Amino acid sequence: MESAPESGETTTTATVDPCGVKPTFTDEEEKPMSKNAKKKLLKQQRYEAKKAEKKAMEKEAKKREKERKQREWEEKLGMAATEEERQKLIESRKELRKERMEQRCQEKESKLERLKKARLDGGQKIVIDLEFAHLMNTSQLNSLVQQIMYCYAVNGRCEYPAHLFLTGCEGEMHNHLQRLPGYEKWVIDKENRSYIQAFEDQKENLVYLTADSETTLEELDPKKIYIIGGLVDRNRWKGITLDKAKNQGIQTAKLPIGSYLKMSSSQVLTVNQVLEILLKYLETRDWKASFFQVVPQRKRCGDAESESDHHDAEEETNGERDDVELKRQCIGA
Ligand SMILES: C[S@@+](CC[C@H](N)C(=O)[O-])C[C@H]1O[C@@H](n2cnc3c(N)ncnc32)[C@H](O)[C@@H]1O
Question: What CATH number did the domain enclosing 257 receive?
Fold first, then answer.
C-alpha cells in the first residue's frame, strides 16, 4: 500500500522546531539518490508489484467463486420438479439472506454499544497522533488512513474496546479521513487540537509509545493515555516521536518486543500493529501471545529464547487483510 520512498530520502534532514512539531527541510533533499536508497526503492517497487498481482488474483478468485455459487444455485433451481418446489427454494434462500442481514445488524448494534461503553465507561485511552501529515506524501497518507481504518475495525471487534482518540485531526489529514465511507459516524473521539492541548490537565498521564524510548512498557495502566504516532515513514524520521515527547516533557515507552520476540528487521511496527498488540494485551494480559498474534511471521525470527528460520523482512505493511471486509465493517460505523 505504501509507496516507494521519494528520491533522495536517505539524505533528507530536518530540524525540529522547539515544540518538536514542524521540521524545516534543508537543501540536502536535492542530492542524487544513494546506492542504498536505489536498492531500497527497487525492493519497494518489487514488493508493490507483487502486492498488486496478489490483489488482482484475489479479486479474480472472488469473481470465480461468485460465478460458481450462481451456477450452483441455478442448477439447484433447475432440478426442482415442480413450480411449487421452485418457489420453496426461492423462499428459503430469501429467508436465509434475511437471517444473515439481521445477524449483521445485531453485530453492528452490539459493536456500537461496546464502543460507546468504552467511551463513557473507562475504556483504556489510546490516542493516534495525527500531527505528521506534512511529513508524508499522498501515498503514505493513504496508507496511514487505511491503518486507521484497521484500528477502528479491530477495536470494534474487541469485547472490551479501547477508548480511541484521533488528535491533530485537521487540514490534509482531516480531508483524507473524511473521504472514508462512514467516517462521520465512527464512534471515536475526533479532536482537531493536539493531544497536549486536549489532555492539558492530564499531562502527567500521557505516555508516547515509541520504539526509540529507553523505557520498556511492562503493563498497561488504565489511568494512562497511550499515544501512537500517526506516521508512515519506513522509519525515515527515526526518533521524531521520541524528540517530540521529550520536548513536550511527557513520558515515553517502547513495547517489550525484545523480551519476547526476535525480529528479522527493526522493532518499529505500523500504527495498526501497535494498536492491535495493545488491544490483545488488554484482553489477555500476555505480551508474548499478543506479539505472536499480531507481528507478521515474516518480521520475526522466532521467540527471544529460541532460534528458528529467518524470514525475509518486508517493512511497514498493513498486514494481509481483506480490504472489502474491512470497509464493510467501517461503513456505517
Ligand atoms: C511507523 S511508526 C513511526 C516511526 C517513527 N519514525 C517514530 O519516530 O515514531 C508508527 C508509530 O507506532 C508506534 N510504534 C511502532 N513501533 C513501536 C514499538 N516497538 N514500541 C512502541 N511504539 C511503537 C510509535 O508510536 C510510532 O510513532
Answer: 3.40.1280.30
